Each structure stands twice: as structure tokens, then as C-alpha cells.
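C-alpha cells in:
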């Protein structure tokens, strides 16, 4: 039997030999590229999934472009742009929220719109009509004395037939001019001028000032048409006009007066109007765009109060638009926040609402 110390020495030597053999094996593997030992205190980055990209928003259907460095033809054009551009921008923004079913709005109705001049039966009245229009368009003079026509028994009626036709068919002239009487017995009929929205009792001799005010108004209206997004159907043009008007003005009870003959001026220049102004402005813009639009006056639904609204046409019949009652102060970021039930009413909805139009 071996001595105990000798056994311990042999076990120790075998352990040392095993450690030396393992060390030699690791060195050989490392030199052959089998094992690579890297000393790095920075932990490897955690593997994460790539983020899901945000969906690309659909582009707006309708856009309008404004040039900050736009060069204007004159001061009135610049004044018009500064005034109406914010309303145009808001209208186009709201136009992109319109998601109602598109209707086929016609450029004309089932019957061609009548020129009020064509309804004048008296030849003398037609002649007076033509002379007044020619003078008013150039801010010129017109005067006629009934004593020069003793053969005409009711000269007043002859002149009224002419001026009524102008009031109905040439509202652009009625904006700033009309015929008034002069002479001891009111026998002289003379074309007079007044500042827009001041009406005939406030006639002025300052035609340059009148012409300048009219120019601002016309250029404001032209700006609305010029900035209308391209490629729109008549349906969306009508929406665009209603939205521009709603954005451009607010209802103002203090202007509810029969002395205001052309309240569309208030819409585009003063920023306040009543129902007649809303309807006149809408009809004016539709006319500029080639859409037949009728002005209708009557009684508001459920009341005895005077009101005004519009009618356009479609394949399925007339459509009625009440921009006054559509316009709400809460319209901010969506067209639906207005009274949409008052836009594009068909005949059934229109009658059910209770509108009472004057006899046509």
C-alpha cells in the first residue's frame, strides 16, 4: 500500500496536467480562428422591430395658391385681395370637408333665363332702357323731358317699365345709379349716381368717388372667381360660393332696410349683410361662373318676416339654397357645422320647410 502523501502528490500532478492540457487546447483553437474572445464592457444593442411608417395623408381635392410677392395692377386690386383672401382660404379649407353626394347642377334651367329687356313691350321704353344702360356703364349723362313727347299720355309708366327692367337685369348698374325726377312737376327724368349702398336719396356729383368704390367691389368679386379652385363641377362651385360668402360676412340686423338696393356690396366690402345681401351675392357669383341662379324673395319659414334665398337647377328639378340660414358662427373646420339642410333642398324638402315665395 502506497503512502498517503504519495497518493496526494499523484492526484495533484494529474490535476496540473489536466489544466495545462486545457490551456494548450484553448491556445490552439484561438490561433486557428475557432474561438474568438472579445473583451467589451458595452452590451450588444437589443434587436427591435422597425417602426411602422405613418400613412401618407391624401392630398386635398381643392387647393388655392397665393403669392406673397404678388404684384397688383393697382391699389384697388391690392385692397380687394387683402380684404377677401382670408375668406377664400377658409372657404377652400371647408370645401375639402364637403362629403355629401354630388348633384348635377345645371348651367341653365329647363327654360332659358329671360332677359328683362325682352319683356318690355313698349318701343319707347326699350329705347329709354338702352340709353340709360349706355350712360350708366360709362358713368355718363342721361336726361329726358316728358314735355318733348306730348303724344305719350303716361310718360311716367314708360320710364318705369325701362328702369324696372334695369333693376331686375342689370343689378351691376343699380349698384350705383338710378333715374330720378327733376323739374317743377317732376317732368324731367335724369340718371343720378350714388355711393354703393347709399341709394338714390343720397345722390352725389362726385362720380370719381363712386367709380372708385364700384371698382373695389368689382375687383373683390373678380378675385373670388379668379381664385376658385380649378376642375370643380357646378355643384362644388355653388358650395365654394356659399362658403366664401359665409366666411366673408356676418348677418347684421341694423342693415335690414328697404333703402339698401344692392346688399351684395356689403358682403364683399363691408363684411355685414342681411338675407337679401346673401342671396344677391350668391346669384352674382353664380352668374360670373355661368350657372343660372334665381333670386327669390318671400316669407321665411314659419314666420311673417321677409326673407330671400336662391334657386339653381338640376336634371331632377330645382334646388334651393338659403345661404343666410346656412351661415352659422360655429363653422370653423367642417362644412357640416353650418345648417346644411338649407343647401341644395329639393322641391319636397323646400316645401316641407315652409318657404313662401312671392308670386313670380
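Residues out:
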Amino acid at each position: 500500500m502506497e503512502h498517503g502523501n504519495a497518493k496526494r502528490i499523484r492526484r495533484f500532478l494529474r490535476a496540473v496536467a489536466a489544466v495545462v492540457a486545457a490551456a494548450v487546447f484553448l491556445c490552439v483553437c484561438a490561433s486557428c480562428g475557432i474561438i474568438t474572445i472579445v473583451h467589451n464592457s458595452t452590451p450588444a444593442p437589443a434587436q427591435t422591430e422597425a417602426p411602422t411608417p405613418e400613412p401618407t395623408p391624401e392630398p386635398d381635392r381643392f387647393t388655392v395658391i397665393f403669392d406673397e410677392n404678388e404684384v397688383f395692377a393697382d391699389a384697388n386690386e391690392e385692397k380687394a385681395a387683402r380684404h377677401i383672401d382670408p375668406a377664400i382660404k377658409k372657404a377652400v379649407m371647408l370645401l375639402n370637408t364637403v362629403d355629401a353626394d354630388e348633384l348635377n347642377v345645371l348651367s341653365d334651367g329647363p327654360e332659358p333665363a329671360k332677359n328683362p329687356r325682352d319683356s318690355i313691350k313698349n318701343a319707347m321704353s326699350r329705347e329709354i332702357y338702352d340709353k340709360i344702360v349706355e350712360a350708366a356703364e360709362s358713368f355718363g349723362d342721361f336726361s329726358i323731358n316728358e314735355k318733348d313727347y306730348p303724344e305719350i299720355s303716361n310718360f311716367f309708366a314708360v320710364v318705369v317699365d325701362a328702369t324696372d327692367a334695369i333693376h331686375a337685369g342689370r343689378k351691376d348698374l343699380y349698384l350705383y345709379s338710378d333715374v330720378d325726377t327733376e323739374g317743377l312737376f317732376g317732368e324731367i327724368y335724369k340718371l343720378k349716381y350714388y355711393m354703393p349702398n347709399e341709394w338714390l336719396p343720397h345722390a352725389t356729383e362726385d362720380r370719381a368717388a363712386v367709380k372708385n368704390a364700384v371698382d373695389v367691389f368689382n375687383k373683390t368679386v373678380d378675385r373670388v372667381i379668379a381664385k376658385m379652385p380649378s376642375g370643380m363641377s357646378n355643384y362644388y362651385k355653388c358650395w365654394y360660393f356659399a362658403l366664401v360668402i359665409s366666411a366673408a360676412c356676418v348677418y347684421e340686423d341694423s342693415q335690414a332696410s328697404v333703402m339698401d338696393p344692392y346688399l351684395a356690396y356689403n358682403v364683399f366690402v363691408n363684411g355685414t349683410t342681411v338675407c337679401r345681401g346673401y342671396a344677391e351675392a350668391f346669384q352674382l357669383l353664380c352668374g360670373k361662373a355661368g350657372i343660372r341662379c334665381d333670386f327669390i324673395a318671400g316669407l321665411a319659414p314659419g314666420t311673417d318676416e321677409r326673407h330671400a334665398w336662391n334657386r339653381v337647377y338640376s336634371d331632377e328639378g330645382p334646388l334651393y339654397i338659403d345661404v343666410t340660414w346656412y351661415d352659422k358662427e360655429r363653422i370653423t373646420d367642417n362644412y357640416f357645422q353650418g345648417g346644411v339642410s338649407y343647401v341644395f333642398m329639393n322641391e319636397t324638402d323646400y316645401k316641407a320647410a315652409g318657404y313662401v315665395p312671392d308670386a313670380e
